[in-house]
Amino acid sequence: MHLFELPSELVQLIFGHIVKSRQLERVMRIRIVSRQFKTYIDYLISRFRILSQLVGALRKMEFLSRYKPAFPSYICSYLAYQVLREKSTTSSLGRIHRAAKAVCEQEGNTGDEAVVTYTNSLIRLAMCIDIDTLLQEPTAKQPNKCSDGDLEEDLYVAAIYLGKQSYVEGLITDGIEFCAAVGRHDVHSRVFGKAFDAATRQGNVSMIKLLLSCNAQYRDTGSLSIYPQRSILHSAGFYGHQDAFDFALDVRPISLPKEESERYGKPDARALERAIRIMPFPQSYERVAAMLGPDSKVFSRPGVGDPTGWLQHWANLGQIDMVRYTLDKGANPNSIHLVPGSSPLLSAIRSDNEAIVRIILEAGADPSGPDPPNLPLMEAVWKGNISVVKLLLSHGADVHEGCPPPIVFAAFKEQMDLFRLLKEYGARLDTPETGGWAMALAKLHGLSSMVDVLVREGVGRDVVFHWAPLRQSWWRHNLWPRQ
């Protein structure tokens, strides 16, 4: 009998055992077997709060979104489910829901659709502030405490992030001060962060100006101090808000000492050097580059200051416009970076950006370079991105090259779509380094279904794999079972 012909209660028990008894990484691989698998597993991951296993393991969510943008979206959906289940109105999840409802009430729109939309947006903001608190399981030992003032500040910051201009204008009229002066307390929510940061994250210039109207210097002179300017520059560059970036440069003139030695420790110099490294706009990049000058240390740093170093940098950050710009300026897509095992193409693959992979390949990048062990096809199969794998294969990537060969990774990842694709392009399984290695890993990790697949492909169930590149710590770290 087919699995899904069983009673739904029994199917749910089976999937519940799968979700609870396996490492999260493998559960996520099993999840993509089919749409039905995905439906059951997603529900049970949320129901059993499985992502609490990630507490302490995630980098800052803002940076994670650049490397695997689909994953933060998945976490957001997971947290939206937890928000609906949350009984406490003073926990971080409860406060997100409470703030979303409060904003809706201010608008006179309390329909479920509006509340859900605002809740999802505010989850994204809260994820940037403290993802661990949102993911951890609730505990009755430490009840969440917050004052009425805390809840009010949640509402204020939420309204700013959601762009509720007229409501914020009313708050200012009533005497609420935002970024009134350097060193003064800005409105700050423990869940959503600072009010001014919420506006800069959205790049909402009208809201930024409204908040700055509380600042005497800006109100009287139309100019800013370095601190709010630096905040706008960073957020606008990071999140891709060109209007906000240009506003920050225009609102306060920056004049740097001509000599690089005289710039050391200067806040203006640090702000521009930091901004140019996250800049997604060629026009603004050139503007800041002109302000810094060709002798700036930013352009002389080994492996970064040259065009190829910048190309790899932008590919790593997933900045499509800047990748094109740097290639137009003469960057060599095949130049090997100073850091071993890196190249512009590898950076694009690692950032999971198919568009940039395509651009770099079309610019002439070698689909099978640089030298092993870091080969583009290996990296793409390891990432599990079948679109990028197809792209590399269509540009002539060698399906046999790698240590281990890509087909071994596909077997280890249990990704049958990749496995079949590599077989279509001629990947072998009849050597110890291919079928033998794949079978050894499948048995070592208890991948019984993959063992059966390999047997059907002609690999002996009892094949013995005698060799592995022990000098390479990479494969041991990633492929050896973890205790």
Automatic annotation (TrEMBL):
The keyword Transcription regulation does not apply. PROSITE patterns: ANK_REP_REGION, ANK_REPEAT, FBOX. Keywords: ANK repeat, Repeat. Residues 1-51 form the F-box domain. The keyword Transcription regulation does not apply. ANK repeats lie at residues 340-372, 372-400. It comes from the Eukaryota. SUPFAM superfamilies: Ankyrin repeat. This is F-box domain-containing protein. It comes from Xylaria hypoxylon. The lineage of its organism: Eukaryota, Fungi, Dikarya, Ascomycota, Pezizomycotina.
